[in-house]
Amino acid sequence: MALRVDVITIFPDYLAPLQLSLLGRAQREGLLEVHVHDLRDWTHDRHRTVDDTPYGGGAGMVMRPEPWGEALDEVCASLPGRTPHVVVPGPGGDVFTQRTAGTMALELDWVVFVCGRYEGIDERVYLEFARRYPLSVLSLGDYVLNGGEVAVLAMTEAIARLLPGMVGNEASLEEESHTGGLLEYPVYTKPASWRGHEVPPVLLSGHHGQIADWRHQQRLERTAARRPDLMQRYREDEDHGDVGRS
Ligand code: 6GU
Fold first, then answer.
1. The ligand 1 atom nearest the CA atom of 145
2. 103 by DSSP, 3-state: which?
3. Mutate to test the pocket of ligand 1, among 119, 150, 153, 155 (most ligand atoms within 8 A of CB)
4. Which of 96, 98, 188, 215 could form a disulfide with 138 if both were Cys (CB 3.0 to 4.6 A apart)?
């Protein structure tokens, strides 16, 4: 069954890149089905209002609960017999990692993304829909975006490329960054010498065992230098699903 993704947003055009490249191909091949909805379609006033001032005062505007309630009622009931996982992207959520992407690709068949803007969505929307559906708040990392749309692009791409039947290159998925808990080794192609920079000779040697060892060493050095947090976890995990070595 194709992964179904619904996105509810006040900026449907922001999600146009979901039709491009790998994600576009996944949809044409029937592995992925994306439906983008304009939240304002569930407003009833002339100005299609989705926000209002916060109770208790303070800066900015808050998204009103009624349009979200009606939108989620309708979208989440649109596939009879199926239950969506509701995902609200936000900087206050659990961090979305490669593991999250893999679990979602493997276990979910329907994700409804809720894109907040302004200072956020009225808290009662979370309470109402967490009572009715599995619901996660997920963050890309420790920085603030203006809304959930860019996060939906990132998460959907990360999930979709892990769908069974995707990419067409299982080996490159296996070996890449954040599999096995280490960063990628550096890669080179022709020419062997470029502007005085040489390709490491071992890669030209034809010794596959030495090449694998060199690449593994590069991964260890890079991870230690750039991501001590990953390195520590790698060292603690004795059963690191170590790739790049036989
Ligand atoms: Cl998921 N949303 C927003 N608005 N900001 C973020 C984020 C998500 N992840 C990091 N910053």
1. 5
2. helix
3. 150
4. 96
What are the tens digits of pLDDT across the range 143-155?
999 999 999 999 9
Q: How many angstroms does the Cα of residue 45 sit away from the middle of ligand 1?
A: 29
CA nearest neighbour of 72 among 13, 106, 104, 116: 116
pLDDT digits (tens, 9 = 90+) for 38-95: 999 999 999 999 999 999 999 999 999 999 999 999 999 999 999 999 999 999 999 9
Tell me whether strands 32-38 and 193-194 are parallel, antiparallel or unpaired: unpaired
Q: Which helix (H) or strand (E) holds 209?
A: helix 208-226
Cα angle for residues 136, 148, 106 (degrees, 5° grid): 45
Query: Model's pTM, two decimal places?
Result: 0.92
Looking at residue 245, its pLDDT comes to 41
Q: Round to whole Å and give the CA distance between 198 and 22.
A: 33
CA–CA distance, 12 with 8 (Å, rounded to integer): 8
Residue 152 Cα to ligand 1 middle (Å): 9
Contact between residue 129 and residue 72 where contact means Cβ atoms under 8 Å apart? yes
What contacts 42, CB < 8 A, 6 or more positions away? 66, 67, 68, 70, 71, 74
Q: Token digits for 141?
A: 């990392």
Closest ligand 1 atom number to CA of residue 138: 1
Binding-site residues, ligand 1, Cβ < 6 A: 89-91, 138-141, 143-145, 147-148, 151
Ligand 1 mean position to 243 CA, how many Å? 31
